[in-house]
Amino acid sequence: MTTESNEHKSAEELTPEQLAEEIVQQAEEQVEEQHEHAHEIISEEQERINELELALAAAKATVADQKDSVIRAKAEVDNIRRRSAQDVEKAQKFALEKFAGEMLTTVDNLERALQSIDKEDESNKAVVEGIELTLQGLISSLEKFAIKAIDPQDQPFNPDQHQAMSMQEVPGVAPNTVIAVMQKGYELNGRLIRPAMVMVSKAPSVDASA
């Protein structure tokens, strides 16, 4: 028999049990076909999901790399700006310190001139007044640039601002007191640029024979 009717008995020739069995078998075949078809669809969707997840991960990695690049670039720009500001500040301080050093030499010379000239001599009066005016004008100019003198006469010795040139016993004077200022010190914006050269009192020596 070549036709389906030849391959299978007609429904009239089948017993109810056989008919039910054939219906069940056909239903199982249809379910299996649908299951295989659904599995294929699920596999294709899963593959598509995997591709999308990989693409998403790659996109996230790219964004993270770009974010890191932006952060690094910003940090580098900030560092360059900070270094530039520090360089400018250092250059300004160096220039001002150099200027102060040149002016301090002039101040020292004027002060030594006043100390050495005979102020009691009336013939020197005009010279003394000229030197004093010049000195005061120079000191005022230095103070405008935050350059201030350190004159520690009769003050406690401070190693951070003073340089002891010699020590001497002075009756009635507490030890480590500045008893003479040989050369004034100076500071720029609160920072020492030249220590004051001073003479310092020391404690009386103990007489070993006493």
What can you see in these coordinates?
The protein has 210 residues and is α+β, with helices and mostly antiparallel strands. Among the domains are: 15-77; 147-203, Nucleotide Exchange Factor Grpe, Chain A, domain 2. It is built from 3 helices and 6 strands; from the N terminus they run αααββββββ. The chain has helices at residues 4-7, 16-116, 125-144; strands at 147-150, 162-169, 178-183, 185-188, 191-194, 196-202. A 3-stranded antiparallel β-sheet has the order 1-4-5. The protein is rod-shaped and about 160 Å long. 7% of the residues are buried. Mean pLDDT is 81; it is low at 1-8.
Brief summary:
It holds the Pfam family GrpE. By secondary structure, the chain is an alpha+beta fold.
Main attributes of the structure:
210 residues; alpha+beta; Nucleotide Exchange Factor Grpe, Chain A, domain 2; 3-stranded antiparallel β-sheet; 3-stranded mixed β-sheet; 3 helices; rod-shaped; disordered N terminus
Biggest pleated sheet:
3 strands, antiparallel
Order of helices and strands: HHHEEEEEE
Distance between the termini: 150 Å
> What share of the residues lie within helices?
55-70%
Number of strands: 6
- Report strand %: 15-25%
Order of neighbouring strands in the sheet with most strands = 1-4-5
Radius of gyration: 51 Å
Number of helices: 3
Structural class: alpha+beta
Spans of at least 5 consecutive residues whose pLDDT stays below 50 are 1-8
SSE arrangement:
Blueprint (H helix, E strand, L loop, with lengths): L3 H4 L8 H101 L8 H20 L2 E4 L11 E8 L8 E6 L1 E4 L2 E4 L1 E7 L8
Parallel strand pairs: 2-6
Antiparallel strand pairs: 1-4, 3-6, 4-5
Helix pairs in contact: 2-3
